[in-house]
From TrEMBL:
It comes from the Bacteria. One of its GO terms (molecular function) is hydrolase activity. Keywords: Hydrolase, Metal-binding, Zinc. This is M20 family peptidase. It comes from candidate division WOR-3 bacterium. Transmembrane segments: none annotated.
Length: 365
């Protein structure tokens, strides 16, 4: 199986499916469709949302199977040589090898293997092409508008070396706009500084978050980042307009609603200030006593012959779109490194192990 996965992954890496390259995104979904053309007794549907293609497979005629595997075929940009796979020992180098064409290769081969079984499992597979740019036209649309989901969702795109990620922070991106009254910088008493309002709002907001260093090695708490502030056109002029962009990450049991209430409560104190939500996403939270999760952990530990730990993810993942609708999510990944960097790699032995874990998990009653 290792050689089969390597051969498939090499071909996937060679397709430059950068998130903005629509022809190559189409080409890679065409490739998956062609690769699985000979699989019988499987339901499939292809989607195209704002030029971003996706494809869904299920052995049952349902959009909500018991187990749903989710993968993305798009990658971040890289050097030309990053799209030429090379092997050194058991490591395969190339753009997307760990993020996450390696896992997608496992999913494709898993479909083939399960199709040869006499009794077909109630399992589905979703491949999208816009995860690297927010998943707006992929997972988000397909979950919200098409009803795709599962009793248990597995996303092999996070954590390190088979860690079991069961919690992920929610995201709250907001733009705050302040308006004031312009005047000469020597006569500030005649004007109203828009940037002053933004600074005061940020200071008050920040008081609701843990200061760093916080003493928690995992830093598992809500955070706020002032990512961008814009305003003013001259050092000697009081600015009458300003914008501030905030990136707030929050942990369970906080929700988007609770964070918005905090922002709204502070912004409303200032005249001439309003806010606009850019993007939001709820937390990922799967209880560790979930029966599917217990079963997966046991099988994975048996295949790997070692204990696995539960982990948490600070960044936003596609898991948020399922979790906010009450679907338990597991995020995990094979062994790899240099994600989004030069010489990205994946361990081929770990891809084979991931395949064996997935196959046993799906087949075992």
């Amino acid at each position: 199986m290792k050689e089969i996965l390597e051969h498939l992954l090499r071909r996937l890496i060679q397709i430059k499916s950068v998130s903005e390259n629509i022809p190559e995104l189409t080409r890679i979904v065409d490739f998956v469709e062609e690769e699985l053309k000979g699989v019988g007794d499987i339901f499939s549907r292809r989607y195209l949302v704002n030029n971003k293609p996706s494809i869904f497979y299920s052995f049952y005629n349902t959009y909500h199977p018991k187990i749903l595997f989710v993968g993305h075929l798009d990658v971040v940009n890289g050097r030309d040589e990053d799209f030429i796979p090379r092997r050194e020992g058991d490591l395969l180098y190339g753009r997307g090898s760990i993020d996450m064409k390696g896992s997608c290769a496992v999913m494709i081969e898993l479909i083939k293997a399960l199709s040869r079984e006499e009794e077909k499992p109630n399992v589905g597979f979703l491949f999208t092409t816009d995860e690297e740019v927010g998943s707006e036209n992929g997972v988000k649309y397909l979950v919200e508008k098409e009803g795709i989901g599962g009793e248990f969702v597995i996303i092999p795109d996070g954590g390190e070396d088979f860690q079991l990620v069961t919690e992920g922070k929610g995201v709250f991106h907001v733009k705050i706009v302040a308006r004031g009254v312009a005047t000469h910088g020597s006569r500030v008493f005649l004007g109203e500084n828009a940037l002053d309002k933004l600074v005061q709002i940020y200071t008050e907001l920040k008081s609701h978050f843990h200061p760093e260093p916080c003493g928690d090695p995992e830093h598992w708490h809500n955070t706020i980042n002032l990512g961008k502030i814009v305003g003013g056109d001259s050092v000697n002029r009081v600015p009458d307009y300003g914008e501030m962009y905030l990136d707030i990450r929050f942990v369970y049991p906080f929700t988007v609603k609770k964070i918005e209430e905090l922002v709204k409560g502070i912004v409303s104190k200032y005249e001439g200030v309003e806010y606009e939500l850019i993007s939001t996403g709820e937390t990922v939270f799967t209880p560790q006593d979930n029966p599917y999760l217990i079963k997966y952990k046991r099988i994975a530990e048996e295949v790997l012959n070692r204990k696995l730990s539960f982990s948490k993810e600070h960044g936003a993942t596609d898991g948020r779109f399922f979790s906010e609708r009450g679907m338990p999510v597991l995020i995990t990944a094979p062994r790899g490194g240099n994600i989004h960097g030069n010489d990205e790699w994946v361990d081929l032995n770990s891809l084979e192990a991931l395949f064996n874990i997935f196959f046993r998990f799906v087949k075992e009653k």
